[in-house]
Amino acid sequence: MNTNGNTYTVIYSVVLVVLVAAILAFVAMGLQDKQNENIKIETITKVLTAAAQADENVSIDENTDVLEMYTEHIIDAFEVDGNGEVKGHLELGKDDPRKIKVPSTADLKKQNDILKKIADAKDEAGKTSLLESLRLPVFIFNINGKTITVIPCYGAGLWGPIWGYIALDDDGRTIEGAIFDHKGETPGLGAKIAEAPFYNSFIGKSLGEGETVFAVEKGKHDGIPDCVDAISGATITSQALGKSINLWAKYYQPYLAKAAAPVSEVSDTPVQDNACTGNQAAAEGDETVK
Questions:
Q1: What is the Cβ-side half-sphere exposure of residue 147, based on CA atoms within 13 angstroms?
Q2: Domain, as residue range, for 236
Q3: pLDDT tens digits, residue range 49-82?
Q4: How many domains, in total, are found in the chain?
Q5: Dihedral angle at the C-alpha atoms of 259, 261, 267, 270, nearest 10 degrees?
Q6: Is 91 a domain residue?
Q7: Does 114 map to a domain?
């Protein structure tokens, strides 16, 4: 074959591309288990971080064996449908931490798609079916004698998905901890949802009742239990997170109401309905949708 001809060049290029693709595919397959394990550990770390905020004496750092800590503090983990019924338990890994089962962000996205369909459903029969098909994760921890329930949230941010975990007291509404993450929010603006100064502001707040269970809005909300201040310059991401929390929390309400401690054991502080009514519009200097 003429090595200077076009045919040789084309064949050589095709063989090279196929060979490189095969090598990359082989490497990706070989690393898949490790990647899945890293994703699982990252999820466990975030769930634990939310729960651990219920006690200032419990901390997580780079030296923490999160798998061991998880198995030490986890009481139960399961999934509930939209009626609050438990539909399946997750592996706790008490005998072998490698067997711990936690939903990935891909699993949360699937549930979020169902939640949006329920919110848009016009047919009651269809809505009922969708509610029964939900599988919302619940994690129950014992943090130094305190029962903490951790629930996730997931939604669309400005540039990509955002998600997080909220830790609740045994009254089913008081927030003991929270942590959030994102795929591509603006550094220094929307990305601040993953930073402690923001998610720490959720501690001591509570889920409300009615159509607006929780919100993240512009302004000062120190005296409002079901709302936190939006990040300055990041109103769009902040409000998107608030909407995601509100959407998920509403469909956890049937379970949380059933699982809550008896009324005599919880605070007498009244729950404010729709107390957060800040400005929904993005202010000048906020993130810009492109």
A1: 13
A2: 35-265
A3: 999 999 988 989 888 999 999 999 999 999 999 9
A4: 1
A5: 40
A6: yes
A7: yes
